[in-house]
Amino acid sequence: MENALYIYNTLTRCKQPFKPLNAPHVGMYVCGPTVYGDAHLGHARPAITFDLVFRYLTHLGYKVRYVRNITDVGHLEHDADEGEDKIAKKARLENLEPMEVAQYYTNRYHQSMDKLNVLRPSIEPHASGHIIEQIAMVQKILDNGFAYIENGSVYFDIEKYNKEHPYGILSGRNFEELLNTTRDLNGQEEKHNPVDFALWKKAEPKHIMRWPSPWSDGFPGWHMECSAMGCKYLGEEFDIHGGGMDLMFPHHESEIAQSMAANGKQPVKYWMHNNMITINGQKMGKSLGNAMSLEDFFAGNHPLLEKAYAPMTIRFFILQAQYRSTLDFSNEALQAAEKGYARMMEACKAAKSIVPTEGAAEVGVQKIMGACYDAMNDDFNSPIVIANLFEAVRIVNTIKDGKMQINPAELELLNKLFQSFVFDILGLIDSDAADNSSDLVEGLMQTIIDIRKEARAKKDWATSDLIRDELAKYDIVLKDGKEGTTWSKK
Ligand code: ZN
User: Fold this and answer.
1) FRET partner for 15 with CA separation of 20 to 30 A, picked from 7, 90, 297, 417?
2) How far is the CA of 33 from the centre of ligand 1 (A)?
3) Beta-strand (E) ranges in 128-174?
4) Cis amide bond preceding 166, omega within 30
5) 315 C-alpha to center of ligand 1: Å?
6) Do residues 154 and 148 touch, judged by C-beta distance below 8 A?
7) Which tens digit of pLDDT belongs to each residue from 66-92?
8) Ligand 1: distance of its center to the CA of 471 in Å?
9) How many angstroms separate the alpha carbon of residue 252 from the centre of ligand 1?
10) Which among 84, 65, 82 has a CA at the least distance from the CA of 74?
C-alpha cells in the first residue's frame, strides 16, 4: 500500500516512511494498564495516542491487529518495604481472590476508556494468562546463555548480552553509564550485577500470586509479559510498539534485550512513545497529591479542579497537542478545550443542514482536506489537523451568517471532511447527540409499535408481519403483554 505516512521512530531517532512488514496487515503492541488502581490522567494519554494511530491506520485501509495487554501480575512497583505485588497485597488484606482485584480494576479501566471513546484493542491478553509462554521464553534466554539462575530466580545477564548486542539502543544509555548510575539496592544481592533484571522471581512464602516453573514457585518479571505476548500474537518481528515515554527505560529496553536474546531478531520496526502529562507544570504523582483518576475529572471531584470536565473535553484537549510534546493540564486550558470542542460539534451539526447553491465558487474545502491528511501523515500531528478543521468551522459559520455560499459537491466534501477527521480519525463524539440518541431510538420504536397496533386492529396482518420481519433484521423482538407491546434486543 502506497501512502505518505511518516512515523517518528524512537529507535532510529528520526521520522521514517511507514512500510509495514506484511502490508496490508499491521501488527501493533501497546503496553496497557497495570490493574491495581483506577485509571488516571496518565492512562488517558497513551490510550488516546494509540487510539489515534489505530484509527488512522484503519482509515488508510490497513488491517491492524492491535494488542494491548493487561498487567495483572509481577509488576516491579512493589511497596518498598514489603516487596509484595500490589494486587496480591490488596487481595490479602481484603480477603479477595487476586483475580477479583485485577478484574475489578480492568472493568473500571474499560468504563473510563469507553467514555473517552477509545476503541478496544483486537486482543487484550492478560499477563497471568500467559505464564506458560513466559516460562518458555525465559528458558530460551537461559538456553542461549544470556541469563543465570540464582536461588530459584532467573536474571538477565546484561554484561554478557552487551558483549554481543548493545544494551541501551532505544534509550541511548550505555552499559558503563548504567553501572555508574545504578545503586545497589537491598534485596538485590542475588544479582551478579546491579543492572541485571529479573526474568523470573522466586516467590516469598506469603506471596499468593505464584506459579510452578522449572526454577521455583514464583512469578515472571514485569518486562517478560510484553515480550512473550507480543511474540505470541504478532510474531518475532512486528511493526509498531507503543507506550508512554516513562516505559522506554527500563521496560522497553529490556523487552528488546529479551527478544534479541531469545530469538536473535530486533522485535519491533517502529517504536513510538507518547510524552507525559504534567498538572499545573508539575509531574503527576501521588507524592504531589495531584494524581487524580479519570472519574475524578468526569465528576469534578478533586481540589485542583474548578469544575467537572466531560470525557470529550479531555479527549479534545489531549489531541490538541502532538503526542510527542509535553502536555500541561490546567483549568484554563481545559476550559478553552471545552469551548473549542463545543464550537466544532456545533459546526459539524450545522453543516448537515446547509442548503447548497448551484454554481457557487469554491471555498477551499479540498485544500483543508489535503492539509488534514498531510498533518496526519506527518507523525500523527493532530493539533495541525484541529487547526485546519477550525478553518472548516469558520467556513460553516460564514455560510450560516449568509456571507458565503457553497456548491453541492463541495458541501458533500465538507461533510465528508467532518465525518472522516472529526469522528472517525480524531474519534470525537457529539456528547449531546449521544445523550439524545437513546431517547430517539425509544421514540422511533414507540412509533413503529403504534403503527403495528393500528395494522393489527384493522386485521392488516401483512403490515404487521412486515414490521416484525424487518425488526428481526436488527435482532429486535416485540412482546405483546397486558400493558401493551414492549421491545427488546435479542
Ligand atoms: Zn509492556
Assistant:
1) 417
2) 9
3) 147-150, 153-156
4) no
5) 23
6) yes
7) 999 999 885 444 443 445 667 677 777
8) 45
9) 7
10) 84
